[in-house]
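Notebook B, p. 112. Complex prediction, attempt 2.
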Amino acid sequence: MMLQRFCRALVALALFLPASSFAGFTDVLDSPASMSPLAAKGLLNGLALAGKRVVAVGQRGQIVYSDDGGGSWRQAVVPVSSDLVAVSFPTPQQGWAVGHDGVVLHTSDGGATWIRQLDGRRVGQLMMEQLRARAARGELGSTEEADKVIDDANRIAAQGAENPFLDVWFADEHHGFIVGAFNLIFETTDGGQTWISWFERTENPDQLHLYAVRGIGSDVYITGEQGLVLKLDRAANRFRAVTTPYKGTYFGAVGNADAVIVYGLRGNAYRSTDGGANWQSIDTGVPEGITGATTFGRHGLALVSQAGNVLLSRDSGAHFTSYRPAKPVPASAVAVTGDAIVIAGALGVSAQALH
Amino acid sequence: MSAVTMQLDRMPVVSELNDFDKNSGNLLERLVFNHRLVMMLVCAVATVLLGWVAVTRLSFNASFEKMIPSHHPYIRNYLDNAGELRGLGNSLRVVVENEDGNIFDPKYQDVLKKINDDLFLTRGVDRAWLKSLWTPSVRWTEVTEEGFRGGPVMPDNFDGSPKATAQLKLNIARSGIVGRFVGNDFKSSMIFVPLLAKDPETGKPIDYRDLSRKLDEIRQRYEATPGVKVHLHVIGFAKLVGDLIDGLVKVMSFFGIAALIAMMVIYAYTRCVRSTALVILCSAVAVVWQLGLVAALGFSLDPFSILVPFLIFAIGVSHGAQKMNGIMQDIGRGTHRLVAARYTFRRLFLAGVTALLADAVGFGVLMVIDIPVIKDLALTASVGVAVLIFTNLLLLPVLLSFTGVSPAAAERSLRAEFAEAEGASQGGVWDVLDRFTSRRWAVAALAVAAVLAVGGFAVSRHLKIGDLESGAPELRADSRYNRDNAYVTGNYSLSSDVFAVIVKTPAEGCLKYPTLVEADRLAWALRQVPGVQTTLFLGDAVRQITAGSYEGSPKWLTIARNQDVLNYGAQQASVNNPDLFNNACSVMPVIAYLTDHRAETLNRVVAAAESFAKDHGATDRQYLLAAGSAGIEAATNIVVREADRTMLFYVYGAVIVLCFITFRSWRAVVVAVVPLMLTSILCEALMVALGIGVKVATLPVIALGVGIGVDYALYLLSIQLAQQRAGVPLAQAYRRAVQFTGKVVALVGVTLAAGVVTWAFSPIKFQGDMGILLTFMFLWNMVGALILIPALSHFLLRKAT
């Protein structure tokens, strides 16, 4: 009798167990990045300077850093193996990296070890809680307007970890923005302890992907799909649309107090010296997408392309000189430290003397 | 045991046939010699029949599956899924090089188009998947504001004009095919030619030899194109097999040379044209029978079994020569030739059978190697040895009973025998040999042997498993195939040493997110292994396609969690990279491109893949080793490594048992076997020195070397022991043994070596390796036996037991 009951219980238990069709699979969010001597040679999409240190982030959660201007690289300890795409260091110690699966990582030791601050499993819930609270407080306008925002956000939130953050920018060690697919955008004012959704504070009615966020001069710009350029209106706490002549994707924005340049698909780049009111086309001579850019010195600008072209300017983008390496490699990001230019891309990071 | 043992027994001289009792001798002797005409007729008919079978039915084959250990789990995994692994299947790469210019030369493009069309029409080509600059399937794509844009790389109505050429240049630049379809130096382009398993018209498997010839025809035709100097490089398994079969045919032509050398050796030994011709004839008959039987049993000649006729011929000649020796002496004494033939039969038949059995042991142990070609080799060689019993032990004496020998040669042989019996000097080295029974010489000889053994052993520690050179290991490094391979490897990005792990899931499982992530982890794990250049699997294509659908942003080079994105990626991949997964999406290879196929590299890759499969395998997701050329080679190496030990164990075990049965003395067994061991060690050292690894082809060498090499010890020791047992002291006993058998030992060594030395010139590398090593073993075993047997006897056999 006992045995029979026990068997029945076993059968019942077996029926209740979830169908383990993917038994033995550990999610990338639950498995730390593997350590590999090849980490600096794989796809690296994000690059930032942490003081004199260069930090690059890339595929499979791999983060590498160099203290000798890109000569040699060490690998950081990272709790996830998601594909990372961007990194920002407001101070030599404090840094943030973002990527796929909605991952936000933080370091407070200049990039050697990282902890998770947010991931895609929590992003949707976080955003919806905040938006519902705002709707309840009447901050989202009329009921209809609020419903539309909640509906739109809900659809995106339901996708959970499917949506990536595509860029991160921190003004200082407390204040920063992260942006991503389908108008995902969060702000922090406490170094990532809490994240506040800005979902309804962008003029992006079609929920286009936001590819980049960057502080330029005293402004903050966001670029995205279909010619989307947004500029922070600090008074209104909103990102307002800026009109540009091009309707293709802008992969990023770069600039200094003198000028801002937005760049993207098929070698398109436009420059504005009046805070985005007027734009002049830059003849880059590059047919491929421009995928990364950086500032250096007082007036220096560097752009890199998917075909490995490097465009340099010493006058805040008024004039560019184009270089094409002998063995071009698709480039994703660029940084300048001292007199070395460091380029990250499909085949990892490499450094060479600045021309 | 040996023929020579019984040479000492004299039989009465019978010069008149009438004085001889026809009914004397055993049943077999009466059966054979009292019906000589019937016997000859039967043999003649058998020769004609089997010869006809051999000529009409014997085929050449270098079947891929017969050269691999088909029972090894890796190979089973591969064969079970071979139909689903398109990219790793059978294909040819035809690289057309413009020697004086580049691919933008209009004349070059014209030739390329013609070659492309010719290949398209060649039978056995899977036309739908043929790819080149001239097929619309080689495309460029670019991302625009509106999405993807693309087209064939070759512009419509390309006419070689500067405008069209500029368009072609642009298309190539934006297609990313440099390194895949266009050489890195723009001097060549590739035509990728996938092959069908079966001819669609006849339903028969593709005839590789025929295909290879057609490729050579195409090569010849277009390399002669006036006005542009094109050069074709063709690689791929079908071409390799074609070249192997051509090599095989060439090796067959060496047979004549081997026979000629054997003939000269025999003539030098007998100085009798008649008997030399008879010995060669009987041995040739043995080869005809062997080939006929092989064909009748349904086997075909492959690069291994083609070597059996050489061995059979050599063994036949050396045994035949001994028969001849006995008959000559009897005839020289005045015995009638028929009686002499019967005497010889009486003396030598049993001994001959035993000696051949010893040779068969060498072949027999090869059956333990689980590789079909080696088993076939063992089987066909056994057939050959069985045939020798008929042709050289029965037919040869019968024929001799008709022809007799030349009187001068008979007399000469008798003179030599008298001289030997009187203990006269044989001159030269023969006199020196018995000194090795004295303490000083014995110690010196053993000391030298010990030094050689220790040195050889130290060197042989560096012996590697597997192939050590790049390119196709079957052919020589400087063969056209390997030169073509080197050109392609040098100018195109991906290596031809491919190791693939088969990822198996339920249907539609290959494009599930967890599968792609796990496969990505496997690829990354493999990439960590030194010797892995790069890896490729469906996920790489899916990443590219995903990024492409997001305006090419590198930030989207990811394996997306969204199943729709993955489905779209797989759908696109099925157009551009159909070789990365099967139609049911249940089989997906993770391919590692290796820098070389050396055993260490393969071991490392196998270890990494095995450990991943163990840690990550799930019921719905299996990681099966292994496919690709390097995967198969890895399995072969594993089998070879195991077989190497078992085979040594069996061959020495068998030889020891055989020696013990013959000598009935453990000490004598040691004396017989130690020289063989020294040769085995030195052979391994020689392999290290020559850069030859332990592989399928070298496995048989040691078995054959030991199995056939023990004959020398059998000849020498059986006489020596017989003498010692008759009370003769060691030095004298050995002296007599050398007197009676020294020349026979030399004869056997030289004829065997003559049989195999020609292989060294084979265009097939492993045949060359086998030839060199076997020649070494046959000759060195002979020297070792002549020197070490007396030296060891000094310590072990001074008192005969």
